[in-house]
Amino acid sequence: MASMKTGVHPDLQIERENGTFDPIQLTNLLHGGPEKTRRKRYIQSLAINDKTFKNSPNWATLSREERYELAVKKAIHQARRVKELGLTDPLDRYFYNQAFMPNENSPFGLHNSMFTDVITNQGTEEQKSKWLPLIQSYQILGTYAQTELGHGTFIRGLETTATFDGKTDEFIINTPTLTAMKYWPGALGKTCNYCLVLAQLYTQGHCHGLQSFIVNIRDVNTHQPMPGVEVGDIGTKFGYDSMDNGYLRMNNVRIPRENMLMKYSKVSRSGVFAKPANSKLLYGGMVSIRSFITGDCGRSISMACTIAIRYSAVRRQTTDSSGETERKILDYQTQQYKLFPALATSLAYIFAGMNISRIFMDVTSKIRQGALDELPQLHALSAGLKACSSYKFNEMAERCRMACGGHGFSQASGFPKLYVNITPAATYEGENTVLLLQTARYLTKCLVSAKQGEELPNLVAYLKQPVDGRTCSINSQFDSNSIVSAFEHRALRLIEDCAHRIQYLVKNGKSQSEAWHLTSVQLTKAAQAHCECCVVKFYLEQISRDPGPKLQQVLQALFQLYCIYTILENIGDFVKDGYLNSQQIELLNTKLLDLLAEIRPNAVNIVDSFDIPDEILASCLGRYDGQVYQALYEYAKESKLNQIEVTDVYYKHLKPFFEEQKKLADVPILPSRL
Amino acid sequence: MASMKTGVHPDLQIERENGTFDPIQLTNLLHGGPEKTRRKRYIQSLAINDKTFKNSPNWATLSREERYELAVKKAIHQARRVKELGLTDPLDRYFYNQAFMPNENSPFGLHNSMFTDVITNQGTEEQKSKWLPLIQSYQILGTYAQTELGHGTFIRGLETTATFDGKTDEFIINTPTLTAMKYWPGALGKTCNYCLVLAQLYTQGHCHGLQSFIVNIRDVNTHQPMPGVEVGDIGTKFGYDSMDNGYLRMNNVRIPRENMLMKYSKVSRSGVFAKPANSKLLYGGMVSIRSFITGDCGRSISMACTIAIRYSAVRRQTTDSSGETERKILDYQTQQYKLFPALATSLAYIFAGMNISRIFMDVTSKIRQGALDELPQLHALSAGLKACSSYKFNEMAERCRMACGGHGFSQASGFPKLYVNITPAATYEGENTVLLLQTARYLTKCLVSAKQGEELPNLVAYLKQPVDGRTCSINSQFDSNSIVSAFEHRALRLIEDCAHRIQYLVKNGKSQSEAWHLTSVQLTKAAQAHCECCVVKFYLEQISRDPGPKLQQVLQALFQLYCIYTILENIGDFVKDGYLNSQQIELLNTKLLDLLAEIRPNAVNIVDSFDIPDEILASCLGRYDGQVYQALYEYAKESKLNQIEVTDVYYKHLKPFFEEQKKLADVPILPSRL
């Protein structure tokens, strides 16, 4: 892009000058302080300033196979650099990797996360000392194979078997049916030579449920599949081009007994199975990943907002009367209504992610001291927040894309790659509906405890309040307590309604389980309501940390917008028992429009605060300098179809067709110029 | 797929046996009678049984450039076959093309539609007799170039100029700025040699606004760009890989004066501009396209439903207790709640499309007799319905995809291609928000007329009713009249509220135009409410045509589900003035769950009624025979990465990396078997 105009577009310049707060303040708040902001920028700059792949063609112009190859090359380079730079802190690695491969998945990603982590957490000391050095030195490259063609959500239903053979002291791994084949694991298809296989353990004629087994799938020297192994890529997907998600069938594949991870469960030389003492500790990993996804979805929405808001500040369209300058599209109320709720939602889930990580660390340290009682609350919340945040990402990212009209549809905008990279979050690490029902299960249990007068953990303590006959205290002050109370009331009302319906159905002859199924739509909504109530509290907690009066005012407006928008989108929940009245609805409707106008002058400064370098945003529309049209033109010129002026397609197909038609046609021969 | 299992999956077989109605009845209703169903099937079979491209690789495995080439080859073959078969009826062509290139855009599409149509409608007799034979015999291949880099929605703002040069009797076409470059027109990049250029006409020193010009952009013999023309592909997009959407810059490109389309506006030899007598007639084309999009979005949702519902009837997941057979996921209330509202919405917009096409033909014939008074109502409705239907497509298609979990994310599912092909409908042929505001403009005018006691056209006649103090009559009977009244009340209430707000703002010193802007969010919602009210009426009209008692019952349940779901999703509109009360909300919530259970046994038969051949659905999950797992496995094996067992990526990158790391590592050399 050597020919790019330099300098910031004046329309963006003015936006930045007119903001009422200093963006770095919000940047620091979002990253945990000035020191952490500096560290993040430093780490990102290491990846951004690495020129190794600077001459690679634009990702958008590559075929799927080229994307995969480039990703492997990048993963290799990244692995070397991470070692050379000595990046061991997970946050450092996150920022480095994200800057190096924005919105892409590294084919080494699962090797460094799930494969390593599960062996670390479920392996014995002996197993760890054998395998971890091999992993860390890339002498083996692994992935994690859980999902099968026929089973994702319901892991108890996995069909792969691992049968102990006492004669040889081995397990025999089999894919007994078509649906038992492993399907989806990342980097399984062509990249890895090892994987952790989740399989049903059989020994002494009994099934002992799922265990993890280290299986060598490709020869470490030749990369050919091992005997009995059929493995390959599963083909193209909505996105994830750089990842060879794979399938795997195993036919009597033998592995040594010591390849079962035995920190908890064990199989002895004689084939005796021993159960783990406590399985709750296995939760930890999932809670941590789901908490991470919550913040990541928030940050991904912030990317979409950055693109859409900067573009809307330089895109001008339509005058009311001729002769006038056209308006910035950001000045249209309808555009603000599309983008600012997304902006507020983004902050809401970034804050929620920060809070839940803090809670996670707190609970983890308590667990180390033997206190497990806060784990269920955390598990329920992290499951529910993962579901809510990934749904919100989908909704808000597409809303931002469509708010950018035609140009939003181009890969140049950055939206498509962002969307297809994050939308699977609704499925992976637990299908959203299933997770929400787990959260609901916890909440209904808490409600029973509440009725019995038991103490409840802080985030569900509101379930002890009486629900009937309350009215909402929201008035023109929009004070935060009345907003929090409204969210608490809504969640409690929905959970109560579920409990009543289940009771009613059981009284009328349904089984407990059937009654639960027949209430499941409402249960997922109740779980969402609880999570949204927590998000509101987390948001408030974050902005109450005295960020300074100017930023405080901006955050307050976004907080109110998030809350009011969420209330209005779910207004049925708030009015069905008369809690909120018609006057209050009107008040909320009007306030929402006022808030759009209030937020407008700071919109660009707020997205600047997200502090996303152009190289990570990778968007012609979201550029910091606002030179969007020049960038779109440069993008077009890079198209592979433009490498030759008159393409082969013309000579091979169009020209012969035109000539054939000319002969057939009963019209005079066309002169070369009309 | 030679190795595919044959026979229908027993889980689907049972669904089909257990349905309460005969699917062919609904098929006929949706297609306009048995004769039209037969014709549709015959036409589709002509394309499906054409084996010319049967040995082409799976579309999902091709690169963007290969997809473009295949599309050109298909377009050529299609053009030949359409001539040979003598397909002249637009509906025949639609079914043929759709079956031949499902969810793809033909690079000849705009040649045969916009390019031909605009010349036909806006050309003089002389122009038509010169150009149409050249078009029909493919001696020239054209497209329609309206959108520019800087202007889409606001066409008055287009910057391309056409300046009359009296000396040579020519127009000089120019792209005066960066933003004036044409950007997005389909097939412009590499395929076409002609285009219709929309440009500001300058003659005798004055600008006379936009006119259409026939411009030769590539030499018809060499395909090289004409002097002064810079043209190319705009690069990859979210989808539309088979289409070379292009950019075009023109520098003093000269065309003869006769290349301006002059049926309405004219420029004489001496450069005198003459205005058209009546410009309203230009509306017709847009109304027709937008009406078509409405039905097309409905049909596209029906494709998503077909995939998701058939898959959900064979996918089994989770048991309540071990030993039981796992449940079909279609039996979960949460899954029904995702899919059945989509099913009902699909029918709603298919019916709306059928109705609006009927109204369009009716109004068109009246226009031919000189009666233009129904055109504004039709224009407002077709604009609004296009917006509503395309938004609904986006929401429902992604909802269906995500309801299929991981497998929905694979291109094998068919969802990604469907989604990216239809989602631009929110932008093309009028940006949705802009269209809704046009609808709102019409409605506010009608409201003024209503207050003045004037007669209103039938679909807006409800605006004459008094709005205050009414209460909703919906009770446990859910009778259709009370439902229609509720939708009428909601729309009227929202339009009234807009009018009040505008009045209030004007009284408080805002200009009329500023007051309109400050009400625009509500105005778009009012427009949506009006359109949804019309959709409800159209639906009712369709099912009241006595389709027989069994089908009637199914359609009635879907009608009620559509209405109740829509009311609950927008409940704030219905409760804010006290129209609907708490008991009624409870009633609706409960009824909705009952309807899910009622529709469940017919779900598969309903999607079968959409009568979409497997070849068009192109989905491993949506196959008529339900053999989804076998199909996914076959799909995986087709991946290009699987063509070689050990890929080049291994030899070029992974192997050298492993060897390098082995040397660096301070661990024993790994034996070939662990």
From TrEMBL, chains A, B:
Compartments where found: Peroxisome
Keywords annotated in UniProt: ATP-binding, FAD, Fatty acid metabolism, Flavoprotein, Lipid metabolism, Nucleotide-binding, Oxidoreductase, Peroxisome
Pfam family, one: ACOX_C_alpha1
Acyl-CoA oxidase C-alpha1 domain ranges (all copies): 283-443
Binding residue positions for FAD: T147, G186
Pathway the protein acts in: Lipid metabolism; peroxisomal fatty acid beta-oxidation
List of catalytic residues: E429
Signal sequence interval, chain numbering: none
Main location group: other
GO cellular component, one term: peroxisome
Residue span(s) of domain Acyl-CoA oxidase/dehydrogenase middle: 144-253
InterPro entries: ACOX_C_alpha1 (IPR055060), Acyl-CoA_ox_N (IPR029320), Acyl-CoA_Oxase/DH_mid-dom (IPR006091), Acyl-CoA_Oxase/DH_mid-dom_sf (IPR046373), Acyl-CoA_oxidase (IPR012258), Acyl-CoA_oxidase_C (IPR002655), AcylCo_DH-like_C (IPR036250), AcylCoA_DH/ox_N_sf (IPR037069)
Domain Acyl-coenzyme A oxidase N-terminal: 23-141
All residue ranges annotated as the Acyl-CoA oxidase C-terminal domain in the record: 480-658
Name of the molecule in the record: Acyl-coenzyme A oxidase
